[in-house]
Amino acid sequence: MKPIYVTSPSLPPLSEYVELLEKIWQSKQLTNYGPFHEELEKELAQKLGVEHIVLFSNGTLALIVALQALRITGEVITTPYSFVATTHALHWNGIKPVFCDIDPTSLNLDPARIEAAITPRTTAILPVHVYGNPCEVEAIQRIADTYGLKVIYDAAHAFGVEREGQSILNFGDLSVLSFHATKTYNTIEGGAIVCHDPKMKLRLRRLQNFGFADETTVVAPGINAKMNEFQAAMGIAQLRHVDGEIQKRSRVALRYRELLRGIDGLTVFRMPENVRDNHSYFPILIDAKLFGRTRDQVYERLKANGIFSRRYFYPLISNFSTYRELDSAKPENLPVASRIAEQVLCLPLFAELEEETLLRIVGLLKAEAETPIG
Ligand code: T4K
Question: Residue 128: CB within 6 Å of ligand 1?
């Protein structure tokens, strides 16, 4: 049987991409702010309801450059419940991550715990809109304003997410997106930073292009993090179809929800009612005591049947060797994140996931729940 992965990237009709590729062959502009780059930037700003956006070769470099652009130093308060790139971006900037626990419902950085983690060296907060679920942006901003801190949102999962009809990307000083192949919207590899003024946009563009201000002037120790024309062309083609893709994903998610109702010890993660979800992931939580099986037993059972779910996010970032020795990384500092990391399982979710496969996945989960422990 064909293996089923946690996701299967959406792709535009091949002919649409090829048509755009032909233009690259004609122009011979392969990268460095070519016509597709500039077009995608405009289209995305409009689509996402943001004023300024800067495209990047991937989300990780975008995070690294975002921290550079705001000249963040010292310590930054962040969540351990994320993909490791969130904290690595701090490490690459010589910044000390300070891990703070998450809220058990939203699975995002818990604002009530942030203040206790602030020290004289704290310069910023780096929360993540996990699975596209918006953080408590007002509460976080209040703390940031009180202590004079910057806020950079890791919005890698939050393409097109709105709360009360407003893009979630407009909060904080900067928001960073990922357009990796596994995301709801992809440019193969790719990312972006949303900012609020043209000066910052210019700074970000310079930093992502070696620091060049013009042909002979370098104003900062920049890096190379530009999006190339092949990525941008993919982005343009994908943008035409992304609404349809999200709709298909939402149908799959709804079906899962209907079928997974009422299973003891299995909780489906829920987005608040006022959020327009992009259905980037389908996380469930397995409470081993009530479910009768551990999350890892379920994961293995699915895997043995060709279903490759993912434990996003396990292990916690704070448990990786680079960060384990930090005071804030101690499990007793992070009880909620530690528990959730043991329970979470992201089920396959993608536009083309067939009903038959979905029924098979649900069947396996139910069989696990019903198998007596022996
Ligand atoms: N911040 C957050 C909160 C993030 O989640 C991420 C990335 C970042 C920052 C950094 O952004 P980028 O620098 O990546 O733009 C994946 C992705 O590589 C990563 O982008 C993503 N988060 C993370 C949550 O998941 P893996 O190691 O689980 O991916 P991988 O390659 O195992 O893919 C999962 C499954 O998807 C595969 O088993 C098969 C399928 N797949 C994957 C790819 C790449 C395909 O069918 N085709 C493909 O091309 O990390």
Answer: yes
Pick from 5, 78, 180, 183 the residue to mutate for probing ligand 1's pocket: most ligand atoms within 8 Å of its CB. 180
Task: Report the nearest-CA residue for atom 25 of ligand 1.
Answer: 182
Residue-wise pLDDT tens digits, 59-97: 999 999 999 999 999 999 999 999 999 999 999 999 999
Q: Residue 372 above 80 pLDDT?
A: no
Domain ranges of the chain: 14-239, 242-370
CATH of span 242-370:
3.90.1150.10
pLDDT tens string 316-331: 999 999 999 999 999 9
Q: How far, in Å, is the centroid of ligand 1 from the Cα of 217?
A: 36
Interval between CA 311 and ligand 1 midpoint (Å) = 12
Domain 14-239 CATH assignment equals 3.30.70.270:
no
Secondary structure of the chain in the HEC alphabet?
CCCEECCCCCCCCHHHHHHHHHHHHHHCCCCCCCHHHHHHHHHHHHHHCCCEEEEECCHHHHHHHHHHHCCCCCEEEECCCCCCHHHHHHHHCCCEEEECCECCCCCCECHHHCHHHCCCCEEEEECECHHHCCCCHHHHHHHHHHHCCEEEEECCCCCCCEECCEEHHHCCCEEEEECCCCCCCCCCCCEEEEECCHHHHHHHHHHCECCEEECCEECCCCCECCCCHHHHHHHHHHHCCHHHHHHHHHHHHHHHHHHCCCCCCEEECCCCCCEECCCCCEEEEECHHHHCCCHHHHHHHHHHCCEECECCCCCCHHHCCCCCCCHHHCHHHCHHHHHHHHHEEEECCCCCCCHHHHHHHHHHHHHHHHCCCC
